[in-house]
Amino acid sequence: MDMYMKCGAPHKATVVFNQISTKSTACWNVLIDGHLKSCQPFEALNLFSLMAQDDHEFDLITLANGVRSCANLGLLRVGKSIHGYMFRTGVVVRCGGGGGAVVAVMVVVAVLWRWRWWRWWRWWWWWWRWRCCNY
Predict the structure, then answer these.
(1) Whether the predicted pLDDT of 108 surpasses 90
(2) Using an 8 Å Cβ cutoff, are 68 and 106 in contact?
(3) What is the tens place of the pLDDT at every residue in 25-35?
(4) Range 118-134 burial, b when 16+ CB lie within 10 A, else e
(5) What is the rounded (10 degree) CA torsion for 25, 87, 78, 124?
(6) Angle, alpha carbons 48-30-64 (nearest 5°)
(7) Rounded CA gap, 35 and 4, in Å?
(8) Cα gap 83→85, rounded to integer Å
(9) Binning pLDDT at 50, 70 and 90, where does residue 135 land?
């Protein structure tokens, strides 16, 4: 499946995925990540929700891909709920705590992108410049 995704044939990877009888978390991760790399975040989020409906266990890679697809689509509430799920289940704690900061940054970047962060940055830069030059 990974080969088909890297070659730009997500349909063939999906056909192979559907032929697998026992789907592991790694198979789901390959397909979700491949759709994200193929600029198809909606399909990736759809696979993430299908994985949740089939009661598969999420790992850190799956959850990070879920947040990444929410960030690409601008779905702040869904990304925040996935981030909250990571802390409620202790996925971030088991990984040493560093993963939480990365996911939090991804959620903040999604918010800033949604709110036209360049306008905010431009305002902040002019304010800082005015403050430093007027002392």
Answers:
(1) no
(2) yes
(3) 999 999 999 99
(4) eeeeeeeeeeeeeeeee
(5) -130
(6) 50
(7) 11
(8) 5
(9) very low
The three-class DSSP label of residue 85 is helix
Token look-up 């994200």 returns 36
pTM: 0.67
**DSSP assignment, residue 24?**
-
Nearest to 58 by CA among 105, 103, 13: 103
Domain residues of the chain, as ranges?
2-133
Take residue 91 and report the two structure tokens written for it: 């996925």
Residue with tokens 């030059």: 133
Tokens of 111: 């918010």
